[in-house]
Amino acid sequence: MSIEEGCSVPNEETRQRSHSVHRTSGFDPRTEIFNSLVELNERQKILTDCNLDVASCVLSQFPHALAESRIALIDAATNCQISYAHLYRSIRSLAYGLYHAVGVRKGDVVFLVAPNSLLYPTISLAILSVGAILTPANPLNTTLEIAKQVADSGAKLAICAPEELHKLIPTKLPTMLTTKTSDGTLLSAEEFIECFDPIDLPLERPTQTDTAAVLYSSGTTGTSKGVILTHANLISVISLLKWSVSASSSQNDVFLCFIPMFHIYGLAFFVLGLFCSGITTVVMQRFDFQAMLDVIKVHRVNNIPAVPPVILALVKHASNMKCDLSSLRRVGSGAAPLSKEVTDGFREKFPWVELRQGYGLTETCGAASFFALDEDAKAHSGSCGSLLPHFSAKIVDIETGSPLPPNKEGELWLRSPTVMKGYLRNEEATTVTLDPEGWLRTGDLGYFDEDGFLYIVDRIKELIKHNGYQVAPAELEALLLSHPQIVDAAVIPLENEEAGQVPMAYVVKASGSELTENQVIRFIADQVAPYKKVRRVGFISTIPKSAAGKILRKQLISQTQQRLNSRL
Fold first, then answer.
1. Residue 3 — very low, low, confident or very high, per pLDDT cuts 50/70/90?
2. What integer pLDDT is reported at residue 5 of this predicted model?
3. Which of 145, 356, 369, 459 is 20 to 30 A (C-alpha) from 337?
4. pLDDT digit string (tens) for 99-154?
């Protein structure tokens, strides 16, 4: 990949390194490290070089000269519009209310559970403006799952959509609503925005090393863990988004948001990053395929950050439905692998639309690799792009731990300013995932080609990716084992064309038990969010395990595939 026009002239240290770094792959044989070949110029470094916290950084980038006329957000359902000036005032008003009326202080953890809305970015940025720590949650989570996150994060206050209030009552956590209700029994963020003037807050500002957010991810193994992201982490990722948007979009572009804002993908893009480029975003509360097509036509949407199931649906169904996608110029894909077959099918049906895949993790603020140029994406179908600025990577042999050169498969390790501080109150998991030099072990098997493009081959880690969500087998196995008629259990991924993967359970029944597949499925469904549901159950006499007692999932996956093939 060529260095973008407008990128900075390399300094002396960079020039010396360039003598050994391969000019297309970015691989340095001396250090056995892959380096990004793109550097931000001085103008593009303005965010990373500032000493501001992330909320102040984002607000400083608002297009103030045009703030009253430039639209920041549009509600896809109601067509309600919010200008940048209104958004700025709302954030400041709510922050003032949280500080003075509720007593939220720097370092307090605020739990937020709500679907996408025009209010979501305001609430998130107001929390960060006070210096508090944001911990968002999936509104699909059950009462039990929400209670676990509230307890683990140490939340002092919850802000929730009215329809989610019942899930928070058992936690006894002080709670306010996102919007006003008819009975008016609880305070709401909406009322604070209407009642308080946006006065400067007499606050001790957070430093860039302070925690800004705790997002819950399954990491590389096990059950859900709190990923600690600092203000510096988030500022680094929005500087990368600002660079990528300026390289491929104009300020007049319209983006469509159906990616959940509680997810790092949605948080980085639609709560933080795009506001730094003065972009207009149309917000959908939840994804609906036909509604998405209608919104693209009505609002002349140009850009869609998406996930593979949405792209697959476009390939399969859009040509058979009444829709006008002529305004669409670019579709991004992240959160899960996008196959070469789906990529090629999309390009065949929508040749005027650029399709660019990226790769990242919650632990890297959702960033790592990206296609800056559409011609590179076309030439490297199946790849998820090249390293973003400020990223370094190693491909490490799984058996020996030795770094590998281009075109050799191994575990992907990453290092950058976006890499998390660690897992909340979990030193063991942090030590396993982060090495002393700051390398993040991703748990993904991949390689770089001779041109520096990254390919993710398989997941070493045992997570199941369902529609971009992460499902930890260990969590489901623990629930299965709590059933009185289940002796042992293992959960594996089952490939699914629509969702990517779905959880399948192998169960060892107690002697004499007449437990059925439907009973097992319902038992799990009652305790977890919909995307975590077990979709199939196989009954087995014993779960294959290693001498150390580790479940041999690959053996179960292979057996399942053989059975499926024999039935075809």
1. very low
2. 32
3. 145
4. 999 999 999 999 999 999 999 999 999 999 999 999 999 998 999 999 999 999 99
| CATH number of the structural domain spanning residue 469 | 3.30.300.30
Per-residue burial over 53-73, b if 16 or more Cβ lie within 10 Å, else e, is bbbbbbbebbbeeebeebbbb
CA distance to 90, 112, 124, 405, 499, per residue, from 189 (Å)? 10, 11, 11, 53, 35
Beta bridge partners of 136: 112
Q: Examine residue 529 and state whether it is found in any structural domain, yes or no.
A: yes
Q: Is residue 559 in some structural domain?
A: yes
CA–CA gap between residue 372 and residue 243 (Å, rounded) = 10
Query: What whole-number distance in Å separates Cα of residue 454 and Cα of residue 448?
Result: 5
Q: What is the DSSP string of 379-412?
A: HTTT---EEPTT-EEEEE-TTT--EE-TT--EEE
Contacts of 495 (CB under 8 A, 6+ apart): 501
CB 254 within 8 A of CB 59: no
> What pLDDT shows up at residue 217?
77
The tens digit of pLDDT for each residue in 190-219 reads: 999 999 887 777 677 899 999 999 999 754
Instruction: Look at residues 60, 196, 58, 187 and name the one whose alpha carbon lies nearest to residue 134.
Output: 58
Domain-embedded: residue 496: yes
Q: Which domain covers residue 486, as residue numbers? A: 464-567
Which neighbouring-strand residues pair with 158?
111, 175
Cα radius of gyration rounded to whole Å, the chain: 24
Enumerate residues 6+ apart whose C-beta is below 8 A from 393: 33, 34, 368, 387, 412, 413, 414, 415, 448, 454
Number of neighbouring beta carbons within 10 Å of residue 104: 21
The residues pairing with 282 across neighbouring beta strands, listed in sequence order, are: 74, 256
User: What is the number of domains present in the chain?
Assistant: 1
Residue 149's H or E segment, with its range, is: helix 143-153
Q: Collapsing DSSP states into helix, strand and coil, what is residue 245?
A: helix
pTM value > 0.85? no
Quote the pLDDT of residue 224: 79
527 assigned to some structural domain: yes
Amino acid letter, residue 273: G
Tokens of 59: 């607000």
